[in-house]
Request: fold
Amino acid sequence: MEDQDKLKILKQLLLSEEKEFADSITQKVEALHKIVHQKKELSYKVDPIIDEKLEEFVQEIPKTLGPTITEALREEIKNSQDAVVEALFPIIGKMIKKYIAHEMKLLSENISNKTKKAFSFRNWFRKTKAKVQGISDGDIALSDYAKPRLIQMFVIEKNSGILLADYSPLSDNTVDKEMVAGMLTAIKSFVEDAFQGGDQNLELIEYELYTIHIQNFYSYYVAAVVSGAYTMMFKEVLEDQIIDFAKNHVSNKELKNSNLFTKKIKKHFADEIV
Amino acid sequence: MKLSKKVVLLGHFGVGKTSLFRRFVDNEFSEEYKVTLGVQIKKKLVQLPDGRELSMIIWDTEGHSDSIEDTRKSYLLGSHAFIYVFDITREQTYSTLKQDLEYLEKHYTKVPAKVLGNKLDLVNEKEITSHLKSQNIPFDCLTSAKTNKNVQDFFSDLAKDITK
Reply:
């Protein structure tokens, strides 16, 4: 036996255990190599762990980050109110904006009525006067405030400004109604154009003791001239009556025949309380 | 049945739109020039040959400087006719006429546009007519708001046209 063979046998005897261990390590490394480099295999092993961790993370976020995020948002909204309104405005839309404005005005009227009722000197004076004269407090109160009154009503074609119908419960002596209709339309067009309010419409013109209430429909608008206190309550009654009139009495036939339209509007509004 | 039509006067600054408007509606004329701001509206009742009466609501718009596209669009909506006025003594007032007419035709398809050359009292009618024709300037009528030449006839013809 040569020396080299003897050495080989000696190695086998001495290192057999280590060799087995090294082989098993090699096999494990190969298996791991296969798992790491094959997406499917890796996914099979790792996905359940990630899912579990993610679930934990989702459950923990509100507890850990929630207060921080809420505080940051609150601070941001507080510091950039204009930007927030700017961003939300198109989404909220004009209906909600109008609704809020409407509710605010009602609330404001309520508050001022209650304040007047509770503290005003005028109220105290009125009560005394009512007692002396033997007239009800309510009657005197009513005469204290100018009652809103419908002076004139115009139905005007939206684009052309052509007068479609009109109604004057008090007197017919006024400036040329067709020119009024044209000028109102020009003013309305100017305001709606100039301030670039998108598809928003001019709805009110106030001048001293008079208010022009404007209610817009698809192809025409109604302009009602009101004297006295134009209150939210009056506005609502007037709006309802105009909508009721438009819904039940305005069709293509009326829009094309101004005499018929005028007759109908006179009849409708003569019967109504405004 | 009541008959109402909206007619809009258009054109460059200082061509005499307001003078024509006042001449036709109130039969007045003033040498004083006042720039129209925005729009002014007047009504004229025109008797039609068939006995009907037309309420012609005339919108006198402020003049534009470059192109008709400068005119506020909302004033043009719902019109039954346009009257494009130019000053026959100032070439720049009809230099954009063709483009302006194309613009009107494109955006207000069904609305007829009449072209009117004003200030006829300042020129020789024959000469200016041949000049405008040689320049291929389309026009329907030449008028003078100052002397009232052709003004009433022009508006009467227009009334007939838009009520046909």
In short: Chain B touches chain A at residues 1-2, 4-6, 38-39, 41-43, 55, 57, 59, 72-75, 77-80 (CB under 8 Å). Chain B is about 30% helix and 25% strand. The longest strand of chain B covers residues 3-11. Chain B has one domain: 3-163.
